[in-house]
Amino acid sequence: MDPHPANGRPIEDYALLSDRHTAALVSSDGSIDWLCRPRFDSPAVLGRLLDPDAGHWSIRPTAPFWSERAYVGDTFVLRTTFTTDAGTAVLTDALALGPATDRGRIRLGAGAPIATLRVIECTAGEVEIDFAFRPRPEYGLVSPIFTPVPGGVLATGGPARFVLTSPVPLDSGEDGATTRTTLHKGHSLHFAVQTADLAQDPPPAWSSEAVQAALDETILAWQDWHDAHPGWPGPYEALIDRSVLVLEALRYQPTGAIVAAPTTSLPEAVGAGRNWDYRYAWVRDASFTVQALAAAGCHGEAVEFFEFMTRAAAHYQPEKPLQIMFGIGGEHDLSERELGHLAGWRDSRPVRVGNAAWLQPQLDVYGELLDAAWHLRGHLQGLDEPARRFLAGIADAAADQWEQADQGIWESRGEPRHYVYSKLMCWVALDRAVKFAHRLGAADRAGDWAAARDRVREAIETRGWNPEVGAFCAAFGADDLDAAVLAMPASGFLPADDPRLISTVDAIDRRLRDARGLVRRYETGSDGLDGAEGSFVMCTFWLAQALALTGRPDRAAEAFDLAATCANDLGLLSEEIDTATGAMLGNFPQAFSHIGLLNAAIAIRDARRSSPDPEATPPPRSP
């Protein structure tokens, strides 16, 4: 049933749970192998995803079984059905949300009780169940002491205590709390784990009725949130609905920040050291995220995310590069370190926490913030003076810094380059600032911004275009390609029928596709790291979007369908795909991939509406 070691289970085998404060990953055999408490970026309490001894909580049949799973409607409540020769059992898992509404407003997760809920019910015959709760706080460093309490056990050790509700007696020792019990048809067991810090008295164990009530409330809360947002009838409806839900699941409730992914150090290539912590909020995601959320009818969520970004960066000084990422509470210091005691997924060391990329200069962030503001202009009900001053300062920074080299959107750890995408986004920053000048209270600076915008355009057109390649290449004077340039059609930099734009999209289509047809971020050897990574799911959706925006929606739909097949059985997407095996790689689930899916679907829909004969586009003229 499981051909891989405990810390090497295929990434696609995992399901996501969320209470909008943190997330858990559950395997198809009923093991929670990743859970950080109390926040997405807190140290893992259950970390078997990255090391066999770093903690897990499993509930599964003792006999051989096969399993199938699905979410309960439009929620992140998971049902896994185990079938054995003797009977069938259904395991329902959730992170408790609490009520969905507060004073008439939907505030999903605002009252989350910091509890993990697990209910198993025998629906046919009889099934013997193996139960093992083995928390290992601080990324596996701490082995708690277990003490019986009324209705369960208390685990103490490290900065938190855990109260496990159990309706059956448990054997507890140094290794954890375990039991085996047989369920007969109609019989169910309700478990829960509540978390309390050391300053709190541990809460009492819940009754089975209280666990069931919390589970029902969680299902209703997710469904209420989904029903309060308009659906997407027609093509890709299920994928789009799930992608919107994923973005909400990865959005930190107290601040509105969206984590790039809820995991750290799932590698971009097995054993290559390309392992990064993605449990933070990237500025680069801002415009893409805002477009996706707004198009999906989640305008309030888009505004919250934008406001988080502007508030987190509000200390910004125009003469210095804008920080590219922040902690989900607005933290700036994201210093990176390695956890040498963890083996890593499939022994892919090192496991990293923190992310050194926070120190990198990346010029594209100016355009991404101002483009997000432009997309939300109808929903920002009067920017306050600090926000206006900050955004105007961003435009000034783009005007002052665009000629500098940087690390680019992909956070290369090699030498800085004059990346075309970075220059393009400086152009976007200045273009949106000119259009937005009156709202920013900076009409007197619009002329200077427009002049700088024209200089950036000239540089991109003369130094970024390579006539021998027939494309805007990765960097000025270069001949390698960068999939990030696929964002050019959506930027408004050139008309959609400009032959250089069409030729660039086609060149990337030819040169950056792998044998499976998926798109790599860039050509091997251009990022300053050893080895080669997989293909990047977001980039395949970018190709689909670019093809649609340049008038070729049928080809766009083919690329979209190919990228969509990268989702697992629950509709969840990882960061990358192994070019040799087709297996998932990278942190999971990846917000950027789901954002790409949403924006590509929108572009294909709009292109088909505007073009009754979409493939009748005449061949491009020679540049």
How would you describe this structure to a colleague?
The chain is of the alpha+beta class. Among the domains are: 11-219, Distorted Sandwich (Beta-galactosidase, Chain A, domain 5), CATH 2.70.98; 255-314 and 325-359, no CATH class; 480-611, Glycosyltransferase (Alpha/alpha barrel). 30% of the residues lie in helices and 20% in strands. The protein has a 15-stranded antiparallel sheet that branches. Helix 6 packs antiparallel against helix 7 and helix 8 (420-436) packs antiparallel against helix 9. Residues 613-623 have low confidence and may be disordered. Residues 236-601 form the GH15-like domain. Pfam families: Glyco_hydro_15 (PF00723), TREH_N (PF19291).
Give the gist of this structure:
Helix content is 30%, strand content 20%.
Topology of helices and strands:
Layout lengths: L13 E5 L4 E5 L3 E6 L7 E3 L9 E6 L4 E6 L6 E6 L3 E9 L5 E2 L2 E2 L8 E20 L2 H4 L4 E5 L2 E6 L2 E6 L5 E3 L2 E9 L3 E10 L10 H20 L9 H13 L31 E2 L3 H10 L3 H14 L12 E2 L10 E2 L13 E2 L10 H12 L9 H17 L18 H17 L9 H19 E2 L4 E2 L15 H4 L7 H13 L23 E2 H13 L3 H12 L11 E2 L6 E2 L5 H20 L13
Antiparallel strand pairs: 1-2, 2-3, 3-4, 3-5, 5-11, 6-7, 7-8, 8-11, 9-10, 11-16, 11-17, 12-13, 13-14, 14-17, 15-16, 18-19, 20-21, 22-23, 24-25, 25-26
